[in-house]
């Protein structure tokens, strides 16, 4: 895969899957604008990689998605790829989740991604086409206790992916989703460390995956970059699970 001459935006690009996606796109020759709320980590990533710039942004702020897309096109002249990766995790007993929390999850996981998709797709239609990859979750397709609000937000993003793929196909814009399972991100490591028996938790999580291991961020990044590449030029409206067979069981 070669992204030479291509311009990409990666939201939530400061750690975990987002940071690995930025690194992979950079290695493949893309010019990348990464966004996130942690300016220190974002600046460090931009310093680490070639052709990577960082823009501190809260996607839920009014006008932020338009500002990000405009910044990429002003700096680099076009936009070819959007990776909608920014997300907010959430757990809680469904009947006790405050509505304010539920709305916050949807603001980040769905509405911000929708706004980024709208802005990016409008630019790509002018620029001759492009690819959008929405990072959803295994929970967009299965039920897990105490993850109802998070699951619903990711399920909405999956539904949006399919509809957007149909609507944008005549304009040369492909829209796909990558659905990670458990992945060894900093968030995962913090969750494991907080358990009563971290090592037992690691074993039980891995044992629930048919392949016997959980994903690394690079595994998910590879799938994202593939769907954004010309190698996937006839793929749109698809959801690619990266979960070691978990949702196939």
Q: Give the H and E element order.
A: EHEHEHEHEHEHHHE
How many beta strands in the DSSP annotation? Answer: 7
- Second-tier CATH architecture of the largest domain: 3-Layer(aba) Sandwich
Let me know the average pLDDT.
97
What is the rounded Rg?
17 Å
Largest sheet: 7 strands, parallel
* Count of individual domains: 2
End-to-end span in angstroms?
Answer: 31 Å
The level-1 CATH class of the largest domain: Alpha Beta
Low-confidence stretches: none
Q: How much of the sequence is in beta strands?
A: 5-15%
CATH superfamily of the largest domain: NAD(P)-binding Rossmann-like Domain
CATH overall fold name of the largest domain:
Rossmann fold
Instruction: Please give the order of strands in the largest beta sheet.
Output: 3-2-1-4-5-6-7
Could you describe the 3D structure shown?
- The structure is a single chain.
- Helix 1 (16-27) crosses helix 8 (217-228), helix 3 runs parallel beside helix 4 (99-127) and helix 4 runs parallel beside helix 5 (148-168).
- The chain has helices spanning 16-27, 39-48, 64-76, 99-127, 148-168, 186-193, 198-207, 217-228; strands at 7-10, 31-36, 52-56, 81-84, 130-135, 173-180, 239-242.
- The radius of gyration is 17 Å and the shape is globular.
- It has eight helices and seven strands.
- It folds into two domains: 7-180 and 217-241, NAD(P)-binding Rossmann-like Domain (Rossmann fold); 184-214, no CATH class.
- By secondary structure, the chain is of the alpha/beta class.
- The mean pLDDT is 97.
- It has a seven-stranded parallel beta sheet, with helices on both faces.
């Amino acid at each position: 895969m070669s992204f030479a001459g291509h311009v990409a935006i990666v939201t939530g690009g400061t750690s975990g899957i987002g940071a690995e996606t930025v690194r992979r796109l950079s290695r493949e020759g893309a010019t990348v604008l990464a966004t996130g709320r942690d300016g220190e980590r974002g600046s460090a990533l931009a310093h680490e990689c070639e052709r990577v710039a960082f823009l501190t942004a809260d996607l839920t702020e009014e006008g932020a998605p338009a500002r990000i897309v405009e910044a990429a096109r002003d700096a680099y002249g076009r936009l070819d790829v959007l990776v909608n990766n920014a997300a907010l995790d959430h757990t809680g007993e469904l009947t006790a989740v405050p509505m304010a929390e539920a709305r916050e999850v949807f603001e980040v996981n769905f509405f911000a991604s929708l706004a980024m998709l709208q802005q990016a797709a409008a630019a790509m239609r002018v620029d001759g086409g492009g690819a959008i990859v929405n990072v959803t979750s295994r929970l967009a397709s299965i039920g897990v206790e105490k993850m109802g609000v998070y699951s619903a937000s990711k399920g909405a993003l999956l539904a949006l992916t399919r509809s957007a793929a149909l609507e944008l196909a005549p304009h040369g814009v492909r829209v796909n989703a990558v659905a990670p399972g458990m992945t060894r991100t900093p968030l995962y490591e913090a969750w494991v460390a907080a358990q009563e028996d971290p090592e037992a938790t690691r074993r039980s999580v891995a044992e629930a995956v048919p392949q016997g291991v959980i994903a690394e961020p690079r595994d998910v990044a590879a799938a994202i970059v593939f769907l954004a590449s010309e190698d996937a030029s006839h793929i749109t409206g698809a959801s690619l699970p990266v979960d070691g067979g978990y949702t196939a069981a």
